[in-house]
Amino acid sequence: MNIAIEAHIAFRFDQPTDFLLQMEAAAIPEQILSGPGLTIGASEHMARVPGEDMVGERIWLRCQGDFTADYAITAQIDRHLAQIETLNALPPHRLPGETVPYLFDSRFCPADRFQPFVEAEFAGTAGGARIEAIRQWVAGHFAYAPGTSDATTTAIVSFVERRGVCRDFAHVVVSLARASAIPARFVSCYAPDVQPQDFHAVAEVFLADPDGEDEGIGSWHLVDATGMAGPADIVKIGLGRDAADVSFLTSYGMAALLAKEISVTCI
């Protein structure tokens, strides 16, 4: 699967402002990137730093006035795909150490609060079968409704209101998976069928590999309860505990969004 991505953002900073930009697709083995890449406007300072878990990169920038960034690449996706409902979960005591932080509560994903719900609603399911049940439950009970949530909305609020955007769907899936003792993380990405086209967000869960379960071996699997992106056509930007770790722009001062244009197509 080859996917062409074009993105343009523009901001205005009235004062000298530090901000962290993360809009480039991650250069990882499952996605081979080619093309001109990122072009950014003038800034006082620029420094690249690794993304969470060394997936993708962030860029520290300092700017006053108008700032623009343009990004154009083609991504070739070569990702292992599995029938997620057939996979088992690894018991927590056998999880690889690097997955353990993705069992804990985080800013937007208070997973502990959901433990009574998952045990009642998804009783009789485990592992990938529970993840598939969670995905179907969220897809069937939530409305995709732009403008009904904001950057402060937590999974608890989304769960109560039963609506939101991709960020909110992903936060709820992550929370319900962690409440089920399955490591789950938040993934920012591009995907061609997102409507309206924009930066997208999905969940990713860690489950046992069928051939390595006895040795405690597992892998990560993408899950999108919005139904707009499948694992075969998702281009990862970055990942983290929740949206706070992978916002496309985190500003340490006032920032006015002037433009955001995203185009993602299969070629």
Can you tell me about this structure?
- By secondary structure, the protein is α+β, with helices and mostly antiparallel strands.
- It is built from 4 helices and 12 strands, in the order ββββααβαβαββββββ.
- The chain has helices at residues 115-121, 127-141, 155-161, 166-179; strands spanning 2-21, 31-40, 45-50, 57-77, 143-144, 163-164, 184-190, 200-208, 218-223, 235-240, 249-251, 256-266.
- Strands 1, 2, 3, 4, 11 and 12 form a 6-stranded antiparallel beta sheet that branches.
- β5 (143-144), α3 (155-161) and β6 form a beta-alpha-beta unit.
- α2 (127-141) packs antiparallel against α4 and α3 packs across α4.
- It starts with a strand and ends with a strand.
Low-confidence stretches: none
Morphology? globular
- The helix-strand sequence is EEEEHHEHEHEEEEEE
By secondary-structure content and strand pairing, the structural class works out as alpha+beta
Mean of all residue-level pLDDT scores: 95
- In total, the number of strands is 12
β-strand amount = 35-45%
Taking the sheet with the most strands, its summary is:
6 strands, antiparallel
Q: List the total number of helices.
A: 4
- How far is it from the N-terminal to the C-terminal residue, by CA? 8 Å
Question: Roughly how many Å is the radius of gyration?
Answer: 18 Å
Helix content: 10-25%
